[in-house]
């Protein structure tokens, strides 16, 4: 009898263990892939990165996104089966991705503490950056487009080229092929300091800027004023001032963290003299 009880007890335990191993997708778990759960939070996080048109059925889209998540889980499981998650390269890249995510989330947290700029700061920004607002212009350009040479310093030979034709001659002498055409630049989309330097050039003087892996030499042919409604100008200025404050606060936090940190460098990896940022005690690792 005792043997029967022991047998029955063993069978019951085995049944309970099997029941515990068999998960079911319910509650906050929307699917299970070979034992790996996909939560509602994980699905919603995927949806946050998708631009959803108004005419799209969100329930249908959510199911499609879930199928993509399942496919990704299956690929991840294959990678783990092959031991990729144990390789040094994976560990290093995972740490980098984790670090970047934490930096991004800290930035979002800092952004919540940055106040909306007041009218004085907004007006000052508008006045300090006329190329973005009151003096915003559309520039019609005569241009030469060419591939970036392997040694960019070769382009220094164009320093004395004071017309687009002179730039063309210089490129030919360097053996660099180019195409000629027209282009347009909106001063409101350029860095104000860069636009200031362009405006200071003599009439007909070329300027060279990188563009999509290439270089473009340009000469201004004509300028047209672009009107910017005051409400749009204030919205742009508000965002720019707030973004500037966020960058300033983020940099200040780095400076404070460095002052409090003990940073050790392996010999030969120390910052060059005069280039090290403000920091706390830095030591060379022995």
What does this structure look like?
There is one protein chain. The chain is built from eight helices and eight strands, in the order H-E-E-H-H-H-H-E-H-E-H-E-E-H-E-E. The protein is α+β, with helices and mostly antiparallel strands and 286 residues long. The strands form three sheets. The protein has a four-stranded antiparallel beta sheet with strand order 4-3-6-5. Helix 2 crosses helix 3 and helix 5 (119-128) packs across helix 8. The N and C termini lie far apart (71 Å).
Would you summarize the structure shown here?
48% of the residues lie in helices and 19% in strands. The protein is α+β, with helices and mostly antiparallel strands and 286 residues long.
Protein traits:
286 residues, alpha+beta, Chitinase A, domain 3, two-stranded antiparallel sheet, 19% strand
